[in-house]
């Protein structure tokens, strides 16, 4: 991966209006200035365009990720968003989040198609796995280890286990591995370790920008 680490991603899921996202960007951008790694905001599809314009206009050191891409390249697929349509709006795409696997029945085959479409659009997939044995689609460079029990539960994995899982995942390929699941300002630092866990994926504690700033600060040194 060419990005600087730690890689810290805020996944807003289906939360926040544009006004709230705009304020979030203003607050977090100030702290992004001196952040040594890479900060990524992942808002819902409708806000990628406005967020991208705002980031460019202000020179904010924040990148964008979509929360998904269509498995279809383009065409008659009502409601879908093709990777080729957002290629100028975001650098990354979260693919295979367990909420998509569970609620939208995304199979390994579908996820492989999504990864391929993202890559064809020069969008870097952030591929979520639930444990060290989850299949990883071909061509993926960034893997997010996100055990389902830890997501939104306030019950994170132990740093020891997360590191053991990251180690196993790295044996399977030259992946950048990040951890996600109930990351907070208190525990963020315990997960990130050079050459093992290269960053974090945060949802609940990214919604309040002040909580997210605590996380950024915790992993800054
Ligand atoms: P959480 O979710 O931070 O709310 O646990 C993580 C995620 O779903 O990516």
From TrEMBL:
Enzyme Commission number, as recorded: 5.3.1.1
Reaction equations catalysed: D-glyceraldehyde 3-phosphate = dihydroxyacetone phosphate
Pathway: Carbohydrate biosynthesis; gluconeogenesis; Carbohydrate degradation; glycolysis; D-glyceraldehyde 3-phosphate from glycerone phosphate: step 1/1
SUPFAM superfamilies xrefs: Triosephosphate isomerase (TIM) (SSF51351)
Secretion signal span: none
GO cellular component, as recorded: cytosol
Top-level taxon of origin: Bacteria
Record localization: Cytoplasm
Entry-linked InterPro entries: Aldolase_TIM (IPR013785), TIM_sf (IPR035990), Triosephosphate_isomerase (IPR000652)
GO molecular function annotations of the record: triose-phosphate isomerase activity
UniProtKB keywords: Cytoplasm, Gluconeogenesis, Glycolysis, Isomerase
GO biological process: gluconeogenesis; glyceraldehyde-3-phosphate biosynthetic process; glycerol catabolic process; glycolytic process
PANTHER family: TRIOSEPHOSPHATE ISOMERASE
Family that this chain belongs to: Belongs to the triosephosphate isomerase family.
Oligomeric form and interacting partners: Homodimer.
Descriptive protein name: Triosephosphate isomerase
Species: Candidatus Curtissbacteria bacterium RIFCSPHIGHO2_01_FULL_41_11
